[in-house]
Amino acid sequence: MSISGGEPEPLAGIGQDAYSPAVSPRGNLLAYTQRLANVNIWRAKGPRSTAQAGSPVELISSPRQQADEQFSPDGKRIAFASDRSGSFEIWVCNSDGSSPVQLTSVGNAFAGTPHWSPDGRWIAFDSRAGGKAGIFVASAEGGEPRRVTDGNWGDLVPSWSRDGKWIYFSSNRSGDRELWKVPAGGGQAAQLTQSGGFEARESKDSKWIYYSKFSEQGIWKMPIQGGTGTLVLNRKCGRFWDVTDQGICFIDLDAKPHPTINAYNFDTQRVTRIGTIDKGPRIENFGALAVSPDGQWALYPQVERVESHIMLAENLH
Fold it and tell me: What is the pTM of this model?
């Protein structure tokens, strides 16, 4: 773009997946990093699985990246984010991974972290369309998304209340990244936490909000009407956790020699190992763990391959 300002223009011949540009002193050469990653969604036994013992299987794949998966309330469909079309969009497929359909078309604005409404009619997600990241809602059948949060903030990782009236999200609008909620139809947002909050899940009985923090490991809980948070699970799980009827299903990223899928029981406060991930999710804040409504299955993203190259473009203008 011009040093005096104006609209930026893409450099011809560079293509996608280009990062970290460096211009030569004479200004005629451009060095940059081209980073390629393949991340696919795998399915493993869930906390209430009745399936026979077996290794996780690849469920949703493409040559590029897919993550942020979540089951629909009836368990028949899966929403996920993927850049298989060239930029990150929200996609929907059947629960067996078949018939993927692109739901959004935001282009370079990046769409991610989809979350189904309790009635399965809507999907909330975050996107940088129109500037800073905000929370959007789109019909699960497609159509133009509508923005739910306002302002030039960084609003991320939405999730719905059990009654469908509220959307929880993380925002830095107070100066620190805290947990907020906004009416599903849009309106005034209300701050919920005062000492950090990132991703939220409402309990099945709608009495508690379970949430993570961006810079601290563990899962906290607070009353649905607000209040002081209490540490419930002191494990390093990043964004790889989900709330079930009986507890919290999570991936222990510190487990050795490989990360493990575990279930924390609310009543006994004990952790039970469900399975082991051979490769493991290597990007802690990219992706999610999702448990099917019946507890039979757990989904998670697995990094298959990451490579990068230093590229050189000549005759830069």
Answer: 0.91
